[in-house]
């Protein structure tokens, strides 16, 4: 088992072990190229990792990803950006300067401490000759009771601090475990896309019974047959070039299950991307809505809100969404912020726009989204066009949502 260990991580199979060695070599090369003490270089590296320039296969790479994320966030908190560069020798000079200041502060603090010690010593000497026996019995009982209360409070404080420490440690352990597992899972799934490993000998045909009278025969695209045979909840695959959004899309009879389950049907706080339960990819709904968590790590739809920048949109104007039955390319049309409203509120609710019963209804929804859009893309849609909506959480307000709407062009 010891032979399958890399960077403190153990791997069960030789294949995983070799993947970890590849990650380790890639990380070593990155560390040679990037000066981790230069804020601008670290923040640039973090941005490149979020756009998918560097992809890792194992938890070794995931640990490095988390390290760069935390370091970049710390530099940003200090006011640095991608263009920041510390002059040579500045760090050393700062330390030296800080050392002199520390010495001066130390002398001042030492004087203060000595004065405080002298006060405490004088107080202690003043009360040194006073024993418990000097008080009457009632007073002795009160003193002992008070001392017991203080000791209980001290023990309770220590216990609470210990519990908080254990909970925090447990939370971060679970976070890194799921984060690492999620990354490995989706790297493996991306490799299975187009594979015939599990597709051989299995009929790709699917029979869908809409009603007793209607029966439809469909065929799963060859590149998704292996993935579909592993999990029949697969409905498609979403990809945005030059980003980390490259995931399978699931669909079940409810919109709850894949909030906290991954493609392998394991509990996972990252959840999965999933299509609204009421959307139909066969009898095509006007608007297909895909939901995903906004993860701080950037996973799932963690980077979707980058579309709030018009420059970002211009470099990522197309989205690839394939159903398991057909391929599709979409062009971004509207980008806006909204929220989940109460049922009795009379307002445009984008998440209820699935099918347009008439041209008037379609145009009304288009006008509402155009009015909300953060910028004008110049892309418009007409009744009969097929739409795709990507939705994730947004912290700008309570129950906030960040939404990207695109029109199918291919």
Distance between the termini: 50 Å
Number of strands: 12
- Indicate the structural class: alpha+beta
What's the CATH topology name of the domain at 231-408? Sortase, Chain: A
- The CATH architecture of the domain at 231-408 comes to Beta Barrel
Q: Encode the helix/strand succession as letters.
A: EEHHHHHEEHEEEEHEEHEE
Question: Any idea what the shape is?
Answer: globular
CATH class of the domain at 231-408: Mainly Beta
Low-confidence stretches: 92-112, 121-129
What is the CATH H-level superfamily of the domain at 231-408? Sortase
Give the helix level as a range of percent: 40-55%
| Rg value | 30 Å
Strand order of the largest sheet: 5-6-7-8-11-12-10-9
| Rounded mean pLDDT score | 82
Strand count, sense and barrel status of the largest sheet are: 8 strands, mixed, barrel
